Amino acid sequence: MLRNFLDNLFSRPDISNPEMLTGSMLPIKPVYPKVLLVNYDPIFHKEGGRRLSSLFGWGDVDRLAADFIADLQQASYGYCNYQIVERLDVDASPLKIDGFSYTAESYAAAWRARAGFHQPDWADYDRILADFDVIRRIESGQIDELWLFAFPYGGFYESRMAGPGAFWCNSPPLDGYGRISRKFVIMGFNYERGVGEMLESYGHRAESIMAQVYKNKRGEANLWERFIRYDLVKPGQAEVGNVHFAPNSKRDYDWGNRAKVLSRCDTWFNFPDLSGRPKQVNCAEWGNGDTRQHHLWWFKHFPHVAGRTSGLSNNWWEYVIDPNRIHG
Q1: Among the residues of 76-183, which ranges form H helices?
Q2: Which of 131, 169, 224, 290 would you call most buried, defined as having the most Cβ atoms within 10 angstroms of its Cβ?
Q3: Under 8 Å CB-to-CB from 304, ≥6 apart: which residues?
Q4: Per-residue model confidence as pLDDT tens digits over 76-116
Q5: What is the 3-state secondary structure (H, E, C) of 210-234?
Q6: How many angstroms separate the CA atoms of 85 and 314, rounded?
Q7: Is there a single domain that holds both residue 67 and residue 184?
Q8: Residue 252 domain flag
Q9: What is the pLDDT of residues 127-173, one digit of tens each?
Q10: Residue 216, Cα to own-chain centre: how many angstroms?
Q11: Which of 72, 309, 76 is nearest to 213 (CA)?
């Protein structure tokens, strides 16, 4: 029912010449990217079959994923509607790149001591893709993305891209998959953290992808570099800022700063018309220091209308969700 409602609400009108209409006049049809979710949550068989996440009182993956999906739907104004088409619980730890894997007991001992975590930490992504037949599923259209959940020190990057022409996506591209038909993103989440941190991981993915979209634009034509301006680096010229820096931030994660600065953040609600005046803003605009609220505020300022400006889509979510839409 929700999908039918959104399709009707955002369906594209039948017009003979779309180029004659402004972006705000053309609704955008929602998308429904398909996700394979793999949850690494080892079982303690000597403690009544409790999973690691339960033993330490960490987050419920189903609730985290549902809230995250709902936040992205809200932030994208109904455009982004992720669907988890399969969810797998794995009674094991991700294999590391040197072949090491924690047992439930060895990991619990390291976590309680806050010491003794294995190095190198990074997971073996090739093994993960093989274990869950990911490439075949991507190629067949069964899934569009892979979401991985694990515990702290699980070894995942926040996001990683694979496929032909894969590029930096807050981590090095995963080599060896250049002959498949399309790029895809692997998200890595930590169920010890919350939805705010999931949005932050997705925000860094967005930063990498949008930097790639605008890499050939210079000066004011690079609208991404304009979007991420904040007062500390561009005094008097703040716009929306980036994932770590709000318009008035003085340091990383300074989302609770009460000092007011001039910002043109709200002009982005009228994109592609950016001629509006700046206004005085502080942390009251984005949740008074709350991680999740800041990231929602930031994402809601992304251009999200139809049409094109200087050859690029006026709906940045197209690129963030599907990097295959990037050309040139």
Answers
A1: 104-113, 125-131, 134-140
A2: 169
A3: 28, 76, 77, 79, 271, 314, 315, 316, 317
A4: 999 999 999 999 999 999 999 999 999 999 999 999 999 99
A5: HHHHCCCCCHHHCHHHHHCCCCCCC
A6: 29
A7: yes
A8: yes
A9: 999 999 999 999 999 999 999 999 999 999 999 999 999 999 999 99
A10: 23
A11: 309
Q: Of 36, 94, 41, which Cα lies nearest the Cα of 65?
A: 36
If one counts the domains in the chain, the total is: 2
| Predicted local distance difference test score (pLDDT) of residue 81 | 98
Identify whether residues 196 and 49 lie together within a single domain.
Answer: yes
Beta partners for 123? 96
Tally the residues of the chain. Answer: 328
The helix (run of H) or strand (run of E) holding residue 307 is: strand 304-309
178 and 291 both lie in a single domain: no
Q: Which domain holds residue 235?
A: 219-309
CA distance 283 to 300: 16
List Cβ<8 Å contacts ≥24 apart for 102-105.
102/42, 103/42, 104/42, 104/43, 104/44, 104/45, 104/52, 105/44, 105/46
How far, CA to CA in Å, does 284 sit from each of 272, 297, 323? 26, 11, 33
